[in-house]
Amino acid sequence: MGTKKKLGLGVASAALGLALVGGGTWAAFNDIETTQATYAAGTLDLNAKDTSARVNLSNLKPGDKFTKDFEFKNDGSLAIKEVLMQVGYSNFVDGNAKNGGKSTAEDFLKQFKVSVLTVGVEGGNGYPKNIILDEANLYDLYNMSAKKDKSAYEKVKKAIEPDFLHDNGKINVATINGKTAPEYDGIPKDPYDFDKVQLVIEFVNDKTTDASGRMVQNKYQGDSVQLDFSFEATQWNGLTIDGKKHADEKGYVKENERAHSEDK
């Protein structure tokens, strides 16, 4: 199911009238010249190609590990600078409550660590990068991005490549190559590119037992939750347009299809 964020088209026109009028007793001649300028906004259109942007966690046991892949394409006309990921959840079921194993969705999410978060695979040709350097759990990612929790932000900050962590608590999952291949930063239209993101999520196998010798994770038996991933595409900073340098003969600003199309 694709998810899209789009900046709609906006069109405005301006007309300049010039009147030519004869003098004296001669009849007046009137000539109207009209110059029209059309301003059209480009489109910011992210296509998350995936069977679903949701992951259902159910019938899992501690020690299980699974992979979730997302593929992003740019279906708009503007280069995408960042793809900001936010983690949410819904439809939590406490499957063991009737046996005294009461738990919450937040507790359940803490049992899952994100061991690898890989971005890149530029156009399918390389530049993959692991951006989780240490363990972070799903609750941390949710708490940081959805609830704007500062303590969760600081915890994740220690576990992730800093350039990929946004100030608003969301994680940028678009590629940042910098000096290596800056033309592929984000998801440009030119050169053509798509990005893949891979998450490896593991159900932590906690061997801790209570006073009676029962595993503390027993209370999560039968629990299930639905993870909701949302992705926000952002544009590059504004560019001071040089008509001869940046636009074609029709006025189309080709430069806005590329990465780094911004004023310094």
Distance separating the two termini: 37 Å
Mean pLDDT: 76
Helix content: under 10%
- Binned strand content: 25-35%
Radius of gyration: 26 Å
Low-confidence stretches: 1-27, 29-38
The profile of the biggest β sheet is: 6 strands, antiparallel
What order do the helices and strands follow? Answer: EEEEEEHEEEHHEEEH
Strands, total number: 12
SS class: mainly beta
Instruction: Provide a count of the helices.
Output: 4
Pfam families: Peptidase_M73 (PF12389)
Signal peptide: 1-27
Protein name: Spore coat protein
InterPro entries: Peptidase_M73_camelysin, Signal_pept_SipW-depend-type
Can you give a write-up of this model?
By secondary structure, this protein is mainly beta. Helices cover 9% and strands 32% of the residues. Strands 3, 5, 7, 8, 9 and 11 form a six-stranded antiparallel β-sheet that branches. Strands 4-12-6-10 form a four-stranded antiparallel β-sheet. Strands 1-2 form a two-stranded antiparallel ribbon. Strand 7 and strand 8 form a beta hairpin. The two termini are 37 Å apart.
